[in-house]
Amino acid sequence: MDSSVHFEANASSRGSRMRGVALAPHTRLLLLLALVVASGPLVIPNAYFYDVAILVAFNAIVCVGLNLLIGYAGQISLGHAGFFALGGYGTALLTTRYGVPPLVALAGAVAAVALLAFVVGRPILKLKGHYLAMATLGLGIIVSIVLTTEDRITGGPDGMQVPALTLLGFAVQGERVWYWIAGGALLATVFVVSNLIDSPTGRALRALHTSEIAAEVVGIDTARHKLLAFIVSASLAAFAGALVAFYSGFVTPAKASFLHSIELVTMVVFGGMASTGGAIVGAAVLTVLPQVLTVFKDYEMVVFGALLMATMIFMPRGIVPTLAALVLRRS
Predict the structure, then answer these.
(1) What are the pLDDT digits (tens) for 200-217?
(2) Is residue 290 situated within a structural domain?
(3) Which of 85, 193, 285, 295 has its CA at a distance of 20 to 30 angstroms from the CA of residue 61?
(4) Does residue 223 form part of some domain?
(5) What is the pLDDT of residues 306-316, one digit of tens each?
(6) Which one, of 269, 270, 238, 279, lies nearest residue 256 by Cα?
(7) Is residue 141 included in any domain, yes or no?
């Protein structure tokens, strides 16, 4: 009798512990994002809104990678639009001039940008603060100038045509098909980056963001980890740039502009740094908001700027971290 009571008590205890097990934050984010992507076609009414949703996904891919560099590693970059554009141009050049299959061209362009990030990242990441920001800004400007002036290779200001993406011999066409590709690419990006953040490498990045000197004291190779974050971030920007080039059918030097780099950084800060969900929300809001504000016509940018200022004043940590802290306080 006593043994049966003891067994039931142990079973009840194990059940309580199992019921108390909670999913990791990044797992919850991934499941929520998958639910949003899967339910999207139920609420998207037409091709225009599909186009906006696709652009949100592509911007979110860049922002998730940029957030790894800025939010977790604490390294500012004002030239990520250059990597974005190089991904598109690399894919365009490989497919149109050399006849490389689209998927191979995409992988080759991303690999080339990763190599470039490795080469330039080693000296650049030795800088800190506004010196690092100026160096990355200069890199982005150089890329933009080269793409604009080398018209024999890049087509100059008019840009280049990009052939259609083909999968299993079929051309990928239509907003609905591209919606699933963009959604799948975003989910894969979040999965990879989340696993990196939850790994010892992610903990090392957070440590060097808090104090680079303290991280070095405990044995963390800060230079190697900063370079890794820079390469991953640049590669994701190139990956998104290549997908955008295939989707739109052309690529122009405007993709590498300083304004585009600032837009990407603003999305990360607006959504919340050191928050993968914040990067996605920031990309979504700042991609959709200009479409909504067209009703203000000539005052569109004024209203847009005022909303950004108000958000940063009242939510300095970004939308997602501020709202999450508010929910925790109330619960």
Answers:
(1) 999 999 999 999 999 999
(2) no
(3) 295
(4) yes
(5) 888 888 888 98
(6) 238
(7) yes
Kindly tell me if the per-residue pLDDT of 228 is higher than 80.
yes
pLDDT of residue 22: 63
Could you give the 3-state DSSP secondary structure of residue 166? strand
**SS3 letters for 174-199?**
CHHHHHHHHHHHHHHHHHHHHHHHHC
Tell me the HSE value of 65 on the side-chain side, using a 13 A CA sphere.
30
Q: CA 103, 109, 115, 120: dihedral to nearest 10 degrees?
A: -150
What domain range includes position 187?
25-36+45-257
Kindly report the average pLDDT of the chain as a whole number.
Answer: 90
The whole-angstrom separation of Cα 168 and Cα 314 is 50
Nearest-angstrom CA–CA distance, 58 and 183: 9
**Phi/psi-derived region of residue 250, left when phi > 0, alpha when psi is between -120 and 50, beta in every other case:** beta
Judge whether 154 lies within some domain: yes
Mean pLDDT of 142-158: 93
Collapsing DSSP states into helix, strand and coil, what is residue 275? coil
Could you tell me the pTM of the whole model? 0.91
For 173, the token pair is: 């066409």
Total structural domains within the chain:
1
Residues 94 and 287 sit within 8 Å (Cβ to Cβ): no
The torsion defined by the Cα of 188, 193, 198 and 201, in degrees rounded to 10, comes to 140
